[in-house]
Specification:
Alpha-Beta Plaits; six-stranded antiparallel β-sheet; alpha+beta; Jelly Rolls; 3 domains; 436 residues
Length: 436
């Protein structure tokens, strides 16, 4: 006996199947790509310290402007730098406008290195008129990642999160914390550098390919789009079916019950999709979107004191550089687990991004929040260790109490200032707004 599905069931099954395919398909979407070497009229420069009395000189290997040799011609003299730079200016006569790589998240590198030098640096220069001047390349933000020679034996993908602003560039600049973080929205130059203290002899570098990679649609937006489609479809379906019911006799009650069950199934599926868009995939905590929604729903009447704690894992870049990203993810996960074990059921905990966590504590004054922060800080320092089991993990915390009529961005900015103060005072400490 053949079993025939009615059109509604067939449509639901098809929609569920397409949704499952859409959720699973995101990692396989084509990557956004930008070939940084594509222009045949590119401008490249070779730099070396011989012109300043150093012991290193450089030369192009061919006419491509992408292959060069660095030679330590005088071991008695210091070797400080040798490398090449590639201008990334869409208009050669406008040195203040480069490429916006903010929509990308990594670089694909294919570079051949024939050298005894153990490391090679990839350098990006970002121009921001708040600190940079046209024509002064050293005023542009100096962002660098250092790679082992062995990493480049085959093409490699380097995440932008591995880049950091050079310490020497920050030393003589008194800038607010947001401007000290790496920016990729106006990259005017890319460099390949053999670092300092070259060994004797010749060192050759051939740049074959450098491509910026990114997602056309982030995972959060992808899942949110699926959720919105479900909600729109659910609304349209409910409206049309409700109109139909009004014109049906009492004998259609059975159909109504069936549709109600389908409606509940769709709402449950929509709830699951909504959770995907509001949760951090590594820790299971709320992400930024989820925390902001929770904050909007929170009781903000004058008799409800709200405290905010902004926590940052100290020296997290050192963890990634020394132990690798797998160890970095482990540290983030273990810190998140300890935080969940330390807070109340009414508190709202989220991973704010990278190594930062945000904790909102309703019905808590500044003293109570400080006490909780110190308990968390000491538990992290006493219980969590790096992979070598020799170095303790620590966190710095900024603590503030929300003021009347204060917006979330305003209270967060004050907490960020306290956190920045804790970092400047040596890390592994709590700073409240009263200490500013």
């Amino acid at each position: 006996m053949a079993i025939r599905l009615k059109g509604g069931y067939t449509g639901l099954l098809l929609a569920l199947l397409l949704t499952a395919i859409a959720i699973a398909a995101h990692p396989y979407l084509p990557a956004r790509q930008l070939d940084l070497l594509a222009s045949p009229e590119r401008t490249t420069y070779l730099y070396y310290d011989q012109v300043e009395g150093g012991g290193t000189q450089g030369a192009w290997l061919n006419d491509s402007g992408l292959a060069f040799r660095c030679s330590r011609y005088d071991p008695a003299k210091p070797s400080t730098y040798c490398g090449m730079s590639l201008e990334l200016l869409p208009q050669a006569d406008d040195p203040a406008h480069g490429l916006n790589l903010a929509a990308y998240d990594s670089l694909y590198l294919d570079i051949d290195v024939k050298s005894t030098q153990p490391r090679l640096s990839i350098i990006l220069r970002n121009f921001d008129p708040r600190y940079a001047k046209p024509g002064d390349i050293n005023s542009a933000q100096h962002i660098v990642v250092t790679l082992r020679r062995g990493d480049l034996q085959r093409p490699i993908q380097v995440n932008f999160s591995e880049f950091a602003v050079s310490e020497w560039w920050l030393v003589n600049r008194d800038m607010p914390r947001p401007l000290t973080l790496p920016s990729f929205d106006n990259i005017i130059l890319l460099g390949v550098d053999l670092r300092n203290n070259l060994g004797p002899g010749s060192h050759e570098v051939v740049v074959n390919e450098i491509v910026a990679l990114g997602e056309w649609v982030s995972a959060e937006r992808w899942y949110l789009g699926i959720l919105l489609l479900w909600m729109l479809g659910l609304t349209a379906y409910g409206v049309t079916r409700s109109f139909h019911w009004k014109h049906q006799a009492h004998g259609k009650q059975v159909q109504f019950n069936v549709l109600a069950n389908k409606h509940r199934e769709l709402r449950e599926h929509a709830r699951e999709l909504k959770q995907l868009s509001e949760r951090d995939s590594l820790t299971g905590l709320l992400n930024r979107m989820g925390l902001e929604l929770a904050f909007e729903r929170m009781d903000k009447t004058p008799d409800n004191q709200i405290a905010l704690l902004l926590l940052d894992i100290d020296y997290f870049k050192t963890i990634n550089d020394h132990y690798g990203h797998v160890e970095g993810d482990r540290v983030i996960f273990e810190v998140s687990q300890l935080l969940q074990d330390s807070v109340r059921a009414t508190d709202v905990l989220a991973r704010w991004g990278g190594e930062e966590f945000l904790l909102i504590c309703p019905h808590a004054n500044l003293e109570q929040a400080f006490s909780l922060s110190e308990k968390i800080r000491m538990r992290v320092h006493n219980r969590l260790w790096f992979a070598d089991s020799k170095t303790q993990i620590s966190v710095s915390v900024g603590v503030v109490s929300m003021r009347r009529d204060e917006t979330f961005p305003q209270v967060f900015a004050r907490a960020d200032t306290c956190l920045y103060r804790a970092k400047n005072l040596g890390r592994n400490r709590t700073v409240t707004e009263r200490e500013l």
